[in-house]
Amino acid sequence: MKHRFLLLALAILILAVGVSISDSRGLLHLPGLVLVISRWTAICVLFIYGIMRNSLTAWILICMVIGAELGHDAPGFAVNLRVLSLVFLRMIKTIIAPLLFGTLVVGIAGHSNLKQVGRMGIKALLYFEVVTTLALFIGLAAINLSKAGVGVNLPPPTQTEQLTAAKETPTDVILHIFPENIAKSVAEGQVLQVVVFSIIFAIALAMLSEEKRRPMLAFAESLSETMFKFTNIVMLFAPIGVGAAIAYTVGHMGLGILGNLAKLLGTLYLALTAFMLLVLLPVALLARVPIKRFVRAMAEPVSIAFATTSSEAALPRAMEAMVALGVPRQIVAFVIPTGYSFNLDGTTLYLSLASIFVAQVAGIHMDFGRQLLMVFTLMLTSKGVAGVPRASLVILLATAASFNLPVEPIFIVLGIDELMDMARTSVNVIGNCLASVVIARWEGEFEKEEPSLVVQEAIAD
Fold first, then answer.
1. Cα separation, 152 vs 182, whole angstroms
2. Whether 69 and 87 share a structural domain
3. Do 177 and 325 lie in a common domain?
4. Domain ends where: 79, 96, 124?
5. How many independent structural domains does the chain possess?
6. Which of the listed residues 79, 95, 128 is the one where a domain comes to its end?
7. Angle 391-402/345-362 helices, nearest 10 degrees?
8. Are 129 and 19 in a shared domain?
9. d(CA 164, CA 362)
10. Which of 95, 131, 173, 234 sits in a 20 to 30 Å window from 86, CA-based?
11. Helix (H) and strand (E) counts for the chain?
């Protein structure tokens, strides 16, 4: 029943948009009221589907459509809705510092047993950093080639907005990384300084005895879990915030922005494909991974990840599949969960791509050096927040604040985040599973013989 409503709503919406485009090009001559009624009829059907579906993602997409229609039909009214998007933005900004502090401290100090894991831990972290760095650079190259954000004219900035990147000397860039006062860094939204403080704090905590480390680690765990719940509460307001931002943006720029979003979506999918062919496939060949068996083992976990847009949903089946493939259980238990914090290949590629897209939409030229600094910032801020719903929004807003970028393009990107999330989550799962095989091969513990029939049936079930 839900799918029928969705198909009906999409059919009516496509028909209404098609009629509107035909009318604008002179192919049809219909009264304006008829066109408006046809579009709002489709929106009403979508609204009913949203009530039946009761999904945050569905409501974000529906509110995006409603916002675009309001911006097109009533631009004067749509401009006044911006206050709702600003409220949502402020609430998101309150999440960033405590969330990064809690998750990074837990991620680093909580893995102090890496000393026991020893060689395997060092190899895994080295592999994670190399692969995610390559993913960031591929995303950077893709968006610079496609220029998906070029050609959009944002409205003039308000007095509280700054749309130009300040000139900084190399000395300023280096000093800007390190905090002189952590409270000042939090208040000013200097996310890179918060990250550096959190990393050093976590290393110091890991060096303490278990008795003294446990209370602070428990506090950090409690803080991170609390901020996860805080994020869930704030994200309930996301459909309204996104819809208001889209209404405001379309009211100023028109519906042409949707073409840039389609170009961005295509750029992401092509970049992820290039990453798998140019990075993951060569890594698999160098590590002598049995490609056919690996592909068969990955079929179900990737399908789950793609359908649910959740790496966590695919985690149990992915671990089972890798054990069945011949990776020792202790390596799977260490590499794949750790990779969920440190080896999000699809997410890191997306973040570099989306950040430059925001700069392009804003008309801000960023030289290669400043883009590298942004990539370095993303390399740090993307660690440890894998379990946060809509983590990409939090990280993108933090990056925008650090580089004086406007927030409107981020809200626009969120409207198609579900379609982007399906691809990047699938790549995250593939990358983590491949990492477990590579580390097992590197350690000389990967089983070369075919899995038993029982194991193969377990993968197929």
1. 37
2. no
3. yes
4. 79
5. 2
6. 79
7. 50
8. no
9. 9
10. 173
11. 23, 0
Q: How much is the pLDDT for 418?
A: 66
pLDDT at 66: 87
- For 126, counting Cβ atoms within 10 Å of its Cβ (0-12 exposed, 13-18 middle, 19+ buried), the class is exposed
pTM for the full model?
Answer: 0.65
Owning domain of residue 112: 83-460
Q: Are residues 199 and 313 in the same domain?
A: yes
CB 279 within 8 A of CB 128: no
CB neighbour class for 176 (10 Å; exposed up to 12, middle 13-18, buried from 19): middle
- Tokens of residue 286, six digits: 């160098």
Asked whether residue 95 falls in the same domain as residue 32, the answer is: no
Q: Which pLDDT does position 9 carry in this prediction?
A: 65
- 225: CATH: 1.10.3860.10
Cβ atoms of 340 and 311 within 8 Å: the answer is yes
Rounded Cα gap, residues 111 and 221, in angstroms: 13
* Structure confidence by residue, pLDDT tens digits, 390-427: 566 677 777 777 787 877 777 777 767 767 887 888 89
The segments of the chain whose pLDDT lies below 70 read 1-6, 8-10, 12-13, 16-32, 34, 57, 107, 110-119, 151-170, 172-173, 189, 191-192, 252-258, 307-313, 341, 381-393, 415, 418, 447-461
Q: What is the pLDDT of residue 162?
A: 41
Residue whose pair of structure tokens reads 């897209």 in the numeric block: 357
Domain identity same for 352 and 450: yes
- Alpha helices per DSSP H over 236-328: 238-253, 257-275, 281-286, 291-308, 311-325
Give the per-residue pLDDT at 247.
Answer: 82
- At residue 267, the pLDDT reads 92
What does the pLDDT read at residue 222?
Answer: 92
For residues 110 and 228, membership in a common domain is answered with: yes
H-helix segments, 110-206: 114-117, 119-146, 170-177, 182-187, 191-206
How confident is the model at residue 165, as a pLDDT?
39
Dihedral angle of Cα 289, 292, 295, 299, to the nearest 10 degrees: -150
Cβ(189)–Cβ(403) under 8 Å?
A: no
- DSSP H or E segment with residue 383: none
Same domain, 53 and 96: no
